[in-house]
Design brief:
- By secondary structure, the protein is an alpha+beta fold.
- Helix content is 31%, strand content 38%.
- It has a 7-stranded antiparallel sheet.
- The protein has one domain: START domain (Alpha-D-Glucose-1,6-Bisphosphate, Chain A, domain 4, 2-Layer Sandwich), CATH 3.30.530.20.
Length: 154
C-alpha cells in the first residue's frame, strides 16, 4: 500500500504572508520539480474549485484532475486528485508569536489509491518505493522554493 508522505519547513514570515504565496496553486510550477502547469477553473480559489495539473518526469508527461476539498485561509488548503484519490495539502502553523510559520506539505493515501495508478507507477515510474522517494525529494524542493518566494517578498 502507498505511504502517506509529509515534509515540513520553517519560514521567516507570518502565516498570512505564507498563505498569500502558497494558496496561489497556479504558481506550483515555480517550485515543484514535477508540476509543469496548474490550470485552476471557476474563478478565485474556493472549496470545490477544480484544477487540471500537467506533470512531467523526464520525457513522460501526464495530466491529473483535482478538486479543493478543504480550505481554511491562512491555515490549510487540500485537494483530492481524481485519478488516484490521494489528497495533497499544505498546512500552516504559526510559530514565535505569529512571526514565523511552519509549512507542512502532505500526501495522504489513507483511502488507498486506484489500481490504474498503482500499475502506472509500477510500469512507468520505477515502482512505488522509488516514486515515493522521488516525491519526498520533490516535496522538499517545493517547500524550499516556497520559502524563497515568501522570504524574498517580506
Amino acid at each position: 500500500m502507498p505511504a502517506n508522505l509529509e515534509v515540513a519547513i520553517e519560514i521567516n514570515a507570518t502565516p498570512t504572508q505564507v498563505w498569500t504565496v502558497v494558496s496561489d496553486l497556479k504558481r506550483m510550477p515555480q517550485w515543484s520539480p514535477q508540476t509543469r502547469r496548474v490550470i485552476a477553473r471557476g474563478g478565485p480559489l474556493h472549496l470545490g474549485s477544480t484544477m487540471i495539473n500537467v506533470n512531467r518526469r523526464d520525457v513522460r508527461v501526464w495530466t491529473t484532475r483535482s478538486k479543493i476539498v478543504d480550505l481554511e485561509p491562512n491555515k490549510r488548503i487540500a485537494w483530492r486528485v481524481t485519478e488516484n484519490h490521494t489528497v495533497w495539502s499544505f498546512d500552516l502553523e504559526p510559530l514565535d508569536d505569529n512571526t514565523r510559520t511552519r509549512l507542512i506539505q502532505r500526501r495522504d493515501v489513507s483511502g488507498d489509491t486506484t489500481k490504474i495508478s498503482k500499475v502506472l507507477i509500477d510500469k512507468l515510474l520505477g515502482g512505488e518505493q522509488s516514486f515515493e522517494k522521488e516525491l519526498t525529494t520533490g516535496m522538499r524542493q517545493t517547500l524550499q522554493g516556497i520559502r524563497r518566494s515568501v522570504e524574498s517578498d517580506v
